Predict the 3D structure of the following.
Amino acid sequence: MAADAAGAIGPKLKDAALAALVAIALTVPILGMETVPGPDGRLTLDFHFHLVAIAAVLVFAGRLALSLLLRGRQLRPSGRSGAVAEFVSRHGTWFGLAGIAFALVLPFMPFASRYVIDVATTIVIYVMLGWGLNIVVGLAGLLDLGYVAFYAVGAYSYALFAQWFGLGFWICLPIAGLLAAIAGVLLGFPVLRLRGDYLAIVTLGFGEIIRLVLINWHEVTGGPNGIADIPRPTFFGFPFTRDPGEGETAFHELFGLEFSTLHRVIFLYYLALFLALVTNLFVLRIRKLPIGRAWEALREDEIACKALGINPTNTKLTAFALGAMFGGFAGSFFATRQGFISPESFTFIESAIILAIVVLGGMGSQIGVVLAAAVIVLLPEIGREFETYRMLLFGAAMVLIMIWRPRGLLAHREPTLTLAGSTGGTGTRGGGR
Amino acid sequence: MAYFLQQLINGVALGMVYGLIAIGYSMVYGIIGMINFAHGEIYMIGAFVSIIVFTLLGMLGISWAPLALLLVLIVAILVTSLYGWTVERIAYRPLRGSFRLAPLISAIGMSIFLQTYVQVAQGAKIKPLQPVVTGGFVFTDPTGFTVTISWIQILIIVLTLVLMAGFTWVITKTPLGRAQRACEQDLKMAALCGVDVDRTISTTFVIGAALAAVAGLMATLYYGVIDFFIGFLAGVKAFTAAVLGGIGSIPGAMLGGLVLGLAEAFWSGYFSIEYKDVAAFTILVLVLIFLPTGILGRPEIEKV
């Protein structure tokens, strides 16, 4: 009996030892020897071989644990969504309503400090971006790696229109959305006829082009310094200031309240929530329209769609433009909230974060996006010293989740509509918010 | 004329580096039809391993340039290939046969991971390398302009040509190359005929990473500075080169690299250096619109 167990564990130990050896070979140069500038400006090396040892031990233990747990089964992706995911998507409406109710009363909770509301606003904005990108990635199945470009278009169009023409937020919002959508069409038109992976790289390139133009076009965008003094939001014309100008009424005067800087923070939070809910409502409704159905059909089988007379390019283009539009809305909100924008805020990493939210949440799942956005925004907030390692965890999590559950944590990729009597019990309920 | 010639030389040297990276993209795409998004980071790791080994050799007192170069080349190729192999083993192999976007997203995750890993381990600062190979030939034309072709540029061009020759021999004449070409045509059929598909794919990643390591070493020598972020731009540009030449085609990758390198050199020489990266991306978009199969690519026909 004991010999049996030893015989079974022998190859596993050997396997784990091999993995540890590989880990040592990989980490000795990069992790074990750090190049640092020496006294004469030349590089010298700092040796950290204890880190290599730690990495080797971790890999050994991890590999051994993995092979013991799996017991010979291959770690292969499972197409099924787990029990939790099923539960959530079955009761999606209730989760959604509870979430909205919580979001609505959040600013009046006893624990809601300025900091809490600020973080909540950030989460809501990422949720909105996630929902916008979800149209493109989750519903239409197009991988967009340059979503932040549309975010940037939205932010800069609000900032520039406000600065040059003195237009207010509510007028600029549709303009920003429109401009972002136009940018989406301009980009999408040439490349959407191509295969999905080409699209990914071209959108990535487009995101970089936009950023490079923002940095180099000094006369208009202010170059790397960005645009400062973007008008702050007003409550439909009533500013959030202590001493409003001549002939103006401030928000606190209008409602007879004590002046507090918190008012603006709360207003921004509700503004973000409003925009996000509009996005959500829009997505939920459009999924039931022919165009929404066409997106999902296209995601599943492009050739069949062509056979049925759906024009794939136009259908993809609408998804692309609508996704971009919501990116533009979020961008102009970002500009008015920060009061300052620069190309720094619109790097590829930002696109990757939004994509990670969609992917981790489960492509096509509305409530999954909320959970993933909360996790990703809160993770670095919980431990500030964690910041440097955030992207490290990020990358690793993206790989692991793809391997473990390629359809996302709360995958909801069943078609919204199924034939009566066929498999989809939860499908017809749709939404799955 | 002299100025033109100088840009030509710079462009060819740059193009060779892009071409070497592009081969890695093209081979992987040819065999498993995925964009190895982390390939740019593999190149970056090649550059870092090179600079670390150079520094180590400097500390050990080995300063004879040919020996140092040879040692760095060997170590960089070995370590970087191992990275290539590990990335495939961890992030891509479990996803074979999964839905189309899964490996691509996994590759993006891997790319972010590797980039941050190097940033955390080596610091975010730019790493300068003391010039290892200096000097070159200087030609002066009658009008007084000079054209310089440095030893490093000669090294890049010669080494790339030698590698390409060796690589072409491997692909066309060896059993490994035969297995690779078989896998490229039909994975399932190749497996049925007794080709070890997993091993062939692993080897492909290893070869691609080895070429990227050479590119990393040469870029380190050429520019003299590296940081953890170089893989991103180089990766996108090399991918552009691969698409330009016709993805899946290895001579095409080299050709695309050359065209892109020349375009970039002439663009920065004659127009504006700030927008040189925009030039590369514009070429990518234009090629995809007007020439989706690239210069040497075959059209892809999808059958139901």
